[in-house]
Write a structure and sequence with these properties.
mainly alpha, elongated, disordered N terminus
Length: 210
C-alpha cells in the first residue's frame, strides 16, 4: 500500500498507473485503487469522476513522461544507433513492468485512452523513428537506399504486433512482450544498418546484445 494521507493529482496518477501496470486495468476497482493508495474513495473522486477518466488521465501522464524521456535521448551528440538503442532499452524496461492484459483492457474498455496511445504512436513515435532513420543515413550507419517514411511505418506495424499479443497470436506462445520486442529490434536494426553500422554494433556490444 502507498502510505499517503494527502496526495497531489500527479502522485495519484503515477501510483494508479503503477497499479494498472502491475495488475492490469480491469482487475483494479476504484475501491481497491483508493485502498492501495491509502486514500479515501471520496478523495480519489475529487480528482476523477470515474475509472474511465482515471485511465485517460493516467495514459495522458504516461505519454507526457515518455515524450520528455525520449526527447532527452534524441540529442545532438551521439549517433543514430546510440539513440535507437537507448530508446529500445527504455521501451523494453517499460514492457517488463507491464501486465500482459493492460493493452487488451484498454482497447476493450477504455477506447479514448487507447486512441490517445494510437495517436501518440502515429505522430510522435513515427516522427522520432523517421528522424532517427534520416540521421542514421546521414551518419553513414544506415543503408543509403532506405525510405525513412516507409521503414518508420513498418516499425510502427511491428510495434502494434508486440503491443497486441492477443490479436497477433503471441499471447498463446508464452513469450513475454519484452522478449518479443527485443527480437523485433534485432530484426529491425539488422535490416537498416549498413556494414559500418553493424561493425559499430559489434564493437559496442561485443556481439552479445545484437
Amino acid at each position: 500500500m502507498f502510505a499517503a494521507s494527502i496526495m497531489e493529482e500527479r502522485d495519484i496518477l503515477q501510483k494508479a498507473g503503477e497499479l494498472f501496470m502491475l495488475y492490469g486495468i480491469k482487475s483494479m476497482t476504484m475501491d481497491e485503487i483508493a485502498r492501495q493508495l491509502g486514500i479515501s474513495k471520496k478523495t480519489l473522486y475529487q480528482h476523477v469522476s470515474n475509472k474511465n477518466e482515471l485511465v485517460e488521465k493516467v495514459v495522458a501522464s504516461k505519454i507526457h513522461d515518455e515524450r520528455e524521456c525520449i526527447c532527452q535521448m534524441v540529442k545532438p551528440e551521439g549517433n543514430a544507433i546510440d539513440q535507437l538503442m537507448e530508446i529500445t532499452a527504455f521501451v523494453k524496461g517499460n514492457m517488463k513492468k507491464m501486465h500482459p492484459s493492460v493493452m487488451f483492457d484498454m482497447q476493450k474498455y477504455h477506447l479514448d485512452a487507447w486512441n490517445s496511445i494510437k495517436n501518440h504512436k502515429d505522430n510522435f513515435i513515427f516522427t522520432t523513428m523517421k528522424t532517427n532513420l534520416e540521421r542514421g543515413i546521414e551518419d553513414g550507419m544506415y543503408r543509403a537506399n532506405l525510405n525513412p517514411e516507409i521503414v518508420a511505418r513498418l516499425y510502427l506495424s511491428m510495434m502494434n504486433i508486440v503491443m497486441n499479443p492477443t490479436e497477433s497470436g503471441f499471447g498463446q506462445t508464452g513469450f513475454e512482450q519484452s522478449e518479443v520486442h527485443e527480437q523485433m529490434m534485432r530484426y529491425h536494426i539488422r535490416g537498416i544498418a549498413n556494414e559500418k553500422g553493424r561493425n559499430y554494433l559489434k564493437e559496442k556490444f561485443n556481439n552479445n546484445n545484437i
